[in-house]
TrEMBL record, chain A:
Keyword Cell cycle (UniProt): no
Main location as per UniProt: membrane
Keywords: Golgi apparatus, Membrane, Protein transport, Transport
GO terms for biological process, alphabetical: intracellular protein transport; vesicle-mediated transport
Provenance organism: Flemingia macrophylla
Free-text function comment from the UniProt entry: Subunit of novel type of clathrin- or non-clathrin-associated protein coat involved in targeting proteins from the trans-Golgi network (TGN) to the endosomal-lysosomal system.
Region span, Disordered: 737-831, 944-965
Subcellular location: Endomembrane system
Name this polypeptide is given: AP-4 complex subunit epsilon
Organismal lineage: Eukaryota, Viridiplantae, Streptophyta, Embryophyta, Tracheophyta
Subunit structure: Adaptor protein complex 4 (AP-4) is a heterotetramer composed of two large adaptins, a medium adaptin and a small adaptin.
UniProtKB/TrEMBL annotation, chain B:
One Pfam family cited in the UniProt record for this chain: Clat_adaptor_s
Repressor recorded as keyword: no
Family: Belongs to the adaptor complexes small subunit family.
Record-given protein name: AP complex subunit sigma
UniProt keyword Nucleotide-binding, yes or no: no
Every AP complex mu/sigma subunit domain range: 1-92, 118-172
Single GO BP term: intracellular protein transport
Length: 988, 206
């Protein structure tokens, strides 16, 4: 008895010693726990570090003591202090024979060291030895360390032992060995690529734990390459079945323990469902194997525990990922309903997430849960709210965009987390750009986003906004344009007063004020310039804003001069300009000088340099520099050498030039808006004479250093032949002017035109999407908001109500084609895409010049479908067609050739009935495309303007239209019946 | 995979931290601070999930559970299931508590009894009121051992508390006691386990 008591005490002590610590450590922990401030805590820890530093180097420390020191070091480091002086002792401890010391050592090194630390090399040997140990606990400890400490270079050193351990008698070891291999695969896939079969084999391990562990690496492998594991589908399904029915052997019914003890198989179920989701996605055959077992799991699903719900959730994910099955989708929807109705926020969260997944397959599911979703939106729980926004983002349509974006902005204003603010701001912008019901709304929304999330949004967004205001609705709606602009100006003048606006927003404001501030005559030039100077002054350390401001000033003065009014600069403007004249930034200086120069010119000249509302006009660049011919001729007569294009000089093939130029051009097409900031870049007609008359040292055309060098080299070469230094200088100047790619004999000019065509095809389509969404929205009237008293129901209706198609169709007449198009009808979509494609081909066939036809045709046609979302395109097409149609009708006979097209188009559409919307699209497409291409050219500014589209601008003639009509029919769209309603709507 | 496991108290002091991808000490501290600032601003009775992308990079999720004065936090990516991790926290804390109770073998019976109660009644919150948060720190290396049994290299290895307990037991046994005692202990524990059904029924009938 006495003995037993002693043993008991010893045991308690021992286990304290094993895991617990000495009194000292307890004191330390306590005092840190009671520390009032960070400073006090730091003091205590630093004192502790001092003690440890002293003690740890003492000779002959007892093992238990040493262990405790190491633990204390760990603790110190966890609190954020440097414990690197003790690392080596931890490493030493891994060599210890005592298991607990060894474990403590391994624990410490895994926490202390990165896998590329110098000390690792000292441990690898120990690990190797321990992996071969007879004591499986030692092996386990080593495997723990392996997972953390082995890096790419040391993998080969331990790999053989780890692979051997896959056959270890202890399941715990096998399990860990599998995990270690997985880790190796994670770190450097190729080092274990020959061992992947081992994972497959371990799937059949007779221990379910090992099997479960094997699922981890397999999941990773399958996620990367599902196709090579399709053969495992059947085995996975059968395993899942066994797991779900608790038919697995051994400890899972450990001593008949009930539910909470069978955890591991649940974990495996989750992993298995994840794997099946990957394997079954888009694979009907594989999916069919899974239906039964998933249905069974959902049916038997236990929703009382977390893990049970986790499995149900995974089932939904799986169902929404594999080839859809109606029954399973229904079952999944039921589970979601259960989740959403639950009181637990966790389950609501999972429900919202699952809903977001399911909605992709069956969009109607959301409608049943309107109120639940709105509850989540108003929940105090941030996480849930964000998840709900995610869901709303997925369900946004043009009918509910206003409500959703308003909600998002409200939320965005309320949070302070920059990361999420950026995220949700970009979401708002995306939705607004995609679905905006009106330009006015778009601008208001953008204003809000800029004001509150300002510098967090992408600069592109600001450029898009400027372009939208600049381009307006297109030629047809000048009144609406000016209204839009004045409302923008109005709102900006209002906003300017606010303190601390983000820089990007200010840039937009400056640009708009400069471009349109005085356009409607409501505000005087001095008022606007005063405001601009205020901005520049208030944000005087932001150079970009200042640049925008001075450019805006330049524009306003130019407009004033052009209008024949006398310009008197406000004193503050004067001083602002003077400040910039002496600025360190050459850019600002340049702008200021340009302003000064401009003011001195007369009205006619200014009008040419800075035409009003011309931000979207093309700047014609005469790439042949034809006006220089006379000068060149003169030089040649005087004995100068003719210019040889660089590629000929270097012996390169013409094709490469063609290609590089192509790339160059397309690189510039991604939203470049320099022309907006700069006061109109030097137009060649103005620049050229200047540089000719002045000497050669002024090179106003920006060129890369490289090209200049080559020119100089070439000119040196040519001059050595010519022998005249004076001539060399002159020629140099001319060549610089000439530029590498612009010099063209008749042959190279033809290359130019062919190369540019496809490029324009691209932009055309890029811009098309933007233009479309905008144009279409003019015709989208109101929002069918149902006025029901409870606010929530109202919100629900505005969020979900718009989705019923029939309702929409009947509401207003000109919405009809749009509603039908936005119906998610795949077949229509693809048909339309095909039609579009055909028409594009047709168009190029007709309009491109006969030679090189094949070339052109091919390139354009391949480009078109790639760069457009056909669905979006189609949506836009319809409304544009309406707009053009109605406009032509009203404007009447003034443009005769267009009328002809119109006639042809409408006759084609009238005859077509069976397929109401898709056929008018085809008919109108040509017209539209030409419109789009104009927009495209307008959109691209700067020096890259080409006019390959003249053919389409030229306008179609009657013959063309008839031909087109014939082709449309040929394409197999045979009109059968009439749809007078539709077209009376279309034509007013 | 699991990126990190953190235990901190309601004042934001770390009690246990384990990162499965190496992070320098400063980064660890920063992460702990960030997590705490988010957690302490969350109201009660909301979900246990937090969006962690802003401080753990894209595709990061955070699940936490609040017991008495402690937050248990798991950070992981989309290859794990939130609810399952929540369950795992439950398991971990459970084992932690039992581990604490088991400091003396003589109390093994009580512990098993206690354990069963906590499992079925799910009064972990209550039992953490008894188990002071400092106990976690006192058992610092034990907690790490438990964690190592549950998670290996960022992957969930074992979720069954029985299995984990068994492993922990064996580690401590092997390391400390002479063989004869080991067998004695084994007997004791097997006795204990045999007693379990009885105690369950006893508890139920109560």
């Amino acid at each position: 008895m006495e003995q037993l008591k002693t043993i008991g005490r010893e045991l308690a002590m021992g286990s304290q010693g094993g895991f617990g610590q000495s009194k000292e450590f307890l004191e330390l922990v306590k005092s840190i726990g009671e520390a009032r401030s960070k400073a006090e805590e730091d003091r205590i820890v630093l004192r502790e570090i001092e003690t440890l530093k002293r003690r740890i180097v003492e000779p002959d420390i007892a093992k238990r003591k040493m262990k405790e020191y190491i633990i204390r070091l760990l603790y110190v480091e966890m609190l954020g202090h440097d414990a690197s002086f003790g690392y080596i002792h931890a490493v030493k401890m891994t060599h210890d024979d005592n298991l607990l010391s060894k474990r403590t050592g391994y624990l410490a090194v895994t926490l202390f060291l990165n896998d590329d630390h110098d000390l690792i090399i000292l441990i690898v040997n120990t690990i190797q030895k321990d992996l071969k140990s007879d004591n499986y606990l030692v092996v386990c400890a080593a495997l723990n360390a392996v997972c953390r400490l082995i890096n790419e270079e040391t993998i080969p050193a331990v790999l053989p032992s780890v692979v051997d351990l896959l056959a270890h008698p202890k399941d715990a070891v096998r399990k860990k060995a599998v995990m270690a291999l997985h880790r190796f695969h994670h770190k450097s896939p190729y080092s274990v690529s020959h061992l992947i079969d081992n994972f497959r084999r371990k799937l059949c391990d007779n221990d379910p734990g090992v099997m479960g562990a094997t699922l981890c690496p397999l999941f990773d492998l399958i996620a990367v390459d599902p196709t090579s594991y399709k053969d495992l589908v059947v085995s996975f399904v059968s395993i899942l079945k066994q797991v779900a029915e608790h038919r697995l052997p051994k400890s899972y019914d450990y001593h008949q323990m009930p539910a909470p003890f069978i955890q591991t198989d649940k974990e495996s179920q989750i992993k298995l469902l994840k794997i099946l989701a990957v394997l079954g996605s888009g694979d009907k055959q594989a999916s069919e194997h899974m239906y039964t077992v998933i249905g069974e799991i959902i049916r038997k699903g236990d929703s009382s525990s977390n893990i049970g719900n986790a499995i149900l959730y995974e089932c939904i994910c799986c169902v929404s990922s594999i080839y859809p099955n109606v029954k399973l989708l229904e079952a999944a929807a039921d589970v979601i309903a259960r989740f959403l109705k639950s009181d637990s926020h966790n389950l609501k969260y999972m429900g919202i997430d699952a809903l977001g997944r399911l909605i992709k397959i069956s969009p109607h599911v959301a409608e049943q849960h309107q109120l639940a979703v709105i509850d989540c939106l108003e929940d105090p729980d941030d996480t849930l709210k964000r998840k709900t926004f995610e869901l709303l983002y997925k369900m946004t349509k043009s009918s509910n965009v206003e409500v959703i974006v308003d909600r998002m902005i409200d939320y965005m204003i309320s949070i302070s987390d920059d990361h999420y603010k950026t995220y949700i701001a970009s979401r708002c912008v995306e939705l607004a750009e995609q679905f905006a019901p009106s330009n006015h709304w778009f601008i208001q929304t953008m204003n809000k986003v800029f004001e509150h999330a300002g510098d967090l949004v992408n600069i592109k967004v600001a450029h898009n906004l400027m372009r939208l205001i600049g381009e307006g609705f297109g030629e047809d709606a000048a009144a609406a344009d000016s209204q839009l602009r004045s409302s923008a100006v109005e709102s900006y003048l209002h906003i300017i007063g606010e303190p601390k606006l983000p820089s990007m927003f200010l840039q937009v404001i400056c640009w708009v004020l400069g471009e349109y501030g005085t356009a409607d005559g409501k505000y005087s030039a001095s008022y606007i310039t005063g405001k601009l100077c205020d901005i520049a002054e208030a944000y005087s350390n932001d150079e970009t804003v200042k640049a925008y401001a001075i450019s805006a000033l330049t524009k306003i003065y130019a407009f004033e001069i052009a209008a024949g009014r006398k310009v008197d600069m406000l004193p503050e403007c004067q001083s602002f300009v003077e400040e910039l004249l002496a600025s360190h930034s050459t850019d600002l200086q340049q702008r200021a000088y340009e302003l000064q120069a401009l003011i001195g010119l007369d009205a006619r000249a200014v009008e040419t340099i800075m035409p009003q509302d011309a931000s979207c006009e093309d700047i014609e660049v005469d790439k042949n520099l034809a006006f220089l011919h006379g000068y060149v001729q003169q030089s040649l007569e005087r004995g100068a050498l003719p210019y040889i294009p660089e590629d000929e000089r270097t012996g390169m093939v013409n094709v490469s030039n063609f290609r590089s130029q192509d790339q160059h051009e397309s690189a510039q097409h991604g939203l470049r808006f320099e022309a907006y900031e700069v006061p109109k870049p030097p137009i060649p007609s103005k620049v050229a004479p200047v540089s000719l008359s002045s000497s050669t040292d002024l090179v106003p055309v920006p060129e890369t250093l490289y090209s200049r060098e080559t020119h100089q080299i070439s000119s040196v070469r040519s001059s050595s032949e010519a022998g005249s230094s004076e001539l060399k200088l002159k020629l140099d100047g001319v060549q610089k002017k000439w530029g590498k790619p612009t010099y063209s004999s008749s042959t190279s000019s033809s290359t130019n035109s062919t190369s540019q065509n496809p490029v324009n095809g691209v932009t055309q389509m890029d811009v098309a999407a933007a233009v479309n969404s905008r144009v279409r929205d003019n015709y989208d009237t109101r929002e069918p908001r149902v006025e029901i008293s409870p606010e929530k129901q109202k919100l629900a209706a505005s969020l979900f109500g718009g989705s019923t198609k029939t309702e929409k169709r009947s509401s207003t007449s000109n919405k009809v084609p749009r509603a039908s198009v936005s119906a998610p009808d795949r077949s229509q979509e693809s048909k339309a895409a095909v039609a579009l494609n055909e028409v594009a081909r047709e168009k190029t066939n007709q309009s491109s010049p006969p030679p090189d036809l094949l070339d052109l045709d091919e390139s354009t046609v391949t480009v078109v479908p790639a760069s457009v979302d056909p669905f979006k395109q189609l949506e836009g097409l319809l409304d544009t067609s309406i707009s053009s149609t109605t406009n032509h009708n009203s404007s009447g006979e003034s443009n005769a050739p267009d009328i002809m097209t119109l006639y042809a188009e409408t006759s084609a559409s009238r005859e077509s009935g069976s397929d109401g919307y898709s056929i008018p699209v085809i008919g109108d497409n040509v017209n539209l495309l030409s419109e789009l291409s104009i927009a495209a050219v307008r959109g691209t500014t700067g020096e890259t303007t080409v006019t390959p589209l003249s053919q389409s601008v030229k306008g179609p003639n009657a013959k063309d239209s008839l031909q087109r009509d014939a082709k449309v029919r040929q394409m197999g769209v045979t009109p059968t019946s009439q749809n007078p309603n539709l077209f009376s709507d279309l034509l007013g | 995979m699991i990126k990190a496991v953190l235990v901190m108290n309601t004042q934001g002091k770390p009690r246990l931290s384990k990162f499965y991808e190496f992070q320098p000490v400063e980064k660890q501290q920063e992460a702990i601070r960030n997590v705490f600032s988010v957690l302490c601003s969350r109201p009660e009775h909301v979900s246990n999930f937090v969006d962690a992308e802003s401080f753990f990079g894209p595709d990061s999720r955070l699940v936490y559970k609040h017991f008495a004065t402690l937050y248990f936090v798991f950070i992981f990516d989309s290859s794990e299931n939130e609810l399952a991790i929540l369950d795992l926290i439950q398991v971990m804390t459970l084992i932690g508590v039992i581990g604490y109770q088991l400091v003396s073998v003589l109390s093994v019976l009580e512990a098993v009894n206690f354990w069963l109660k906590t499992v079925f009644v799910e009064t972990l919150d209550k039992c953490f009121r008894n188990v002071c948060e400092l106990d976690i720190v006192f058992n610092y290396s034990k907690m790490h051992t438990i964690l190592d049994e549950i998670i290996l290299g960022g992957q969930v290895l074992e979720t069954s508390s029985t299995e984990v307990m068994k492993a922990i037991d064996e580690i401590s046994k092997c390391a400390l006691f002479p063989i004869w005692f080991l067998t004695c202990r084994l007997e004791a524990s097997s006795n204990a386990i045999n007693l379990v059904p009885k105690s369950v029924s006893g508890w139920r009938s109560r």
